[in-house]
């Protein structure tokens, strides 16, 4: 039995002091006891403010290698999400399985250093550059799982079905060859992931129809029978909405709500472009909106309808998608400040009973992220994974603050990371703000990057 003793910890019932957190041999919390003085030497002392590790509900790990590298104006000008996607297709053609593993390990170590302790990997980079499957069709998925184990992060692997190049059945683009599967081969990849994850409490299997652009209605209906997390990109870009309306008469979120049983298993990634009726209906469905604020800003996607969605009781979590940002507090900051810019308002994500946006946003991201991950995470409570993030309350961004005011300061104040210690599944993976394997992981990443950019 491992145990931690937190000077302050955010529990489901609120902040508590002198909290003993006991963890079983598999990394699950066995007991949480506030107001306990631990005997010296029996528990790992965490003298700061301990919060639950934050789930990251949307990642394409390979895009970490592109972050900051797709910013140049294209010859025709008028750069957009769609010109960025062309750059991504050119870049993706170069990845070997070794590169994919090295880049994912670097990303996952960075996520841990910033306080994410779980990642939902929306995985569509399946095949060799010419589209031929690897000898093991699940090779690339296994590489991501190996990277997650190396870094020590929890993972929900989401093998992604990508079949077409445009709304409801258009032929694929050459740059999409590495992504493509029919339902049979896709099922074999899902099986490979299940085999690899079976019995590992740090891992779960979900699946993802990529989008209404990449899958037909029949495929989406077939995958909707899955008994676990189902993620799909929806309504990220105005052009996607226009194409969906032209093809079906309905906007993407409306089409999904009307044609598939969208419920608590579902995660709609982005859901940026919704009309008020869609906002209320998505909130009522029990699904999670998967918001990726720094990527959505980087790609010029648009701004999520947060006030209406929260007022309707909608659930959301946060993801880092293309990984131009990798810190949960900064994603939450971007989410709130984008609302302030649009509405000329402040403290948007608050309610009378909770005046602290930092706390409101964190609570939502923990609950929504846990639901989207299909794993017992997001709270410091018995039965949950021991995913703990210690914030250093002597850090200049936080010093002198406590409780929810400290969370406001973490989310909204300053640069630099105040994360000191991170445990994931009970195992300490970040000490003094650095991942315990950061040097070896960074070296392998450097080798991969030099090859990819050569
Ligand atoms: Zn995405």
Short structural description:
This protein is of the alpha/beta class and 454 residues long.
Largest sheet: 8 strands, mixed
The CATH level-2 architecture of the largest domain is identified as Alpha-Beta Barrel
Strand content: 15-25%
Name of the CATH superfamily of the largest domain: Metal-dependent hydrolases
Shape: globular
How many domains? The number is 2
Continuous helix count: 14
CATH topology of the largest domain: TIM Barrel
The chain-level mean pLDDT equals 95
Measured as a percent range, the helix fraction is 25-40%
Observed structural traits:
454 residues; 8-stranded mixed beta sheet; binds zinc ion; TIM Barrel
Helix and strand topology:
Blueprint: E1 2-11, E2 14-23, E3 29-33, E4 44-52, E5 54-59, H1 81-92, H2 97-114, E6 116-123, H3 139-151, E7 154-161, H4 183-197, E8 203-205, E9 208-209, H5 217-223, E10 230-234, H6 238-248, H7 252-259, E11 266-270, H8 276-285, E12 288-291, H9 293-298, H10 306-311, E13 315-318, H11 328-343, H12 357-373, E14 388-391, H13 403-412, E15 419-424, E16 427-431, E17 434-435, H14 438-453
Parallel strand pairs: 1-4, 5-6, 6-7, 7-8, 7-9, 10-11, 11-12, 12-13
Antiparallel strand pairs: 1-2, 2-3, 4-14, 14-15, 15-16, 16-17
Helix pairs in contact: 2-3, 2-14, 11-12, 12-13
The chain binds zinc ion (ZN).
What does this structure look like?
With 454 residues, the protein is of the alpha/beta class. The protein has 14 helices and 17 strands. It folds into two domains: 2-51 and 382-444, Urease, subunit C, domain 1; 59-373, Metal-dependent hydrolases (TIM Barrel), CATH 3.20.20.140. Strands 3-2-1-4-14-15-16-17 form an eight-stranded mixed beta sheet, with helices on one face. Strands 5, 6, 7, 8 and 9 form a five-stranded parallel beta sheet that branches. α2 runs parallel beside α3 (139-151), α2 packs across α14 and α11 (328-343) crosses α12 (357-373). The longest helix has 18 residues, at 97-114. The chain is globular, with a radius of gyration of 21 Å. The chain binds zinc ion. Zinc ion binds at residues 58, 60, 122, 233, 269, 321.
């Amino acid at each position: 039995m491992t145990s931690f003793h937190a000077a302050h910890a955010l529990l489901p019932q609120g902040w508590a002091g002198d909290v003993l957190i006991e963890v079983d041999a598999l990394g699950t919390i066995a007991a949480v006891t506030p107001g306990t003085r631990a005997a010296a030497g029996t528990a790992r002392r965490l003298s700061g403010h301990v919060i639950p590790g934050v789930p990251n509900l949307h990642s394409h790990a390979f895009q970490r290698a592109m972050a900051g590298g797709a910013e140049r104006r294209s010859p025709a000008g008028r750069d957009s999400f769609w010109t960025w996607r062309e750059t991504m297709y050119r870049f993706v053609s170069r990845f070997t399985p070794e590169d994919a593993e090295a880049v994912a390990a670097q990303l996952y170590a960075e996520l841990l250093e910033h306080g994410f302790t779980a990642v939902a990997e929306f995985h569509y980079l399946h095949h060799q550059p010419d589209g031929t499957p690897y000898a093991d069709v699940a090779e690339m998925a296994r590489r991501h799982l190996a990277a997650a184990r190396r870094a020590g992060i929890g993972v929900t692997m989401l093998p992604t079905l990508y079949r077409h190049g445009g709304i409801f059945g258009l032929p694929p683009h050459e740059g999409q060859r590495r992504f493509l599967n029919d339902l049979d081969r896709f099922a074999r990849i899902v099986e490979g992931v299940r085999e690899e994850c079976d019995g590992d409490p740090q891992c779960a299997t979900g699946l993802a129809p990529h989008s209404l652009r990449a899958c037909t209605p029949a495929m989406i209906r077939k995958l909707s029978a899955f008994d676990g997390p189902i993620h799909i990109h929806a309504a990220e870009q105005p052009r996607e909405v226009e194409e969906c309306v032209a093809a079906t008469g309905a906007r993407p979120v409306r089409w999904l709500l009307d044609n598939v049983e969208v419920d608590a298993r579902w995660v709609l990634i982005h859901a940026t472009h919704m009309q008020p009726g869609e906002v209320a209906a998505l909130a009522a469905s029990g699904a999670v909106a998967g918001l990726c604020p720094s990527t959505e800003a980087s790609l010029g996607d648009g701004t999520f309808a947060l006030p209406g969605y929260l007022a309707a009781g909608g659930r959301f979590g946060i993801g880092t998608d293309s990984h131009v940002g990798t810190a949960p507090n900064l994603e939450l900051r971007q989410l709130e400040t984008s609302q302030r810019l649009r509405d000329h308002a402040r403290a948007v994500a608050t309610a009378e009973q909770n005046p602290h946006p930092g706390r409101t946003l964190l609570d939502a991201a923990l609950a929504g992220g846990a639901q989207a991950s299909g794993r017992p995470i997001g709270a410091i409570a018995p039965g949950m994974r021991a995913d703990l993030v210690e914030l250093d309350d002597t850090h200049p961004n936080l010093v002198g603050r406590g409780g929810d005011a400290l969370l406001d300061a973490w989310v909204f104040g300053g640069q630099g990371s105040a994360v000191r210690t991170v445990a994931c599944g009970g195992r300490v993976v970040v000490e003094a703000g650095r991942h315990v394997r950061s040097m070896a992981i960074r070296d392998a990443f450097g080798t991969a990057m030099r090859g990819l950019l050569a």
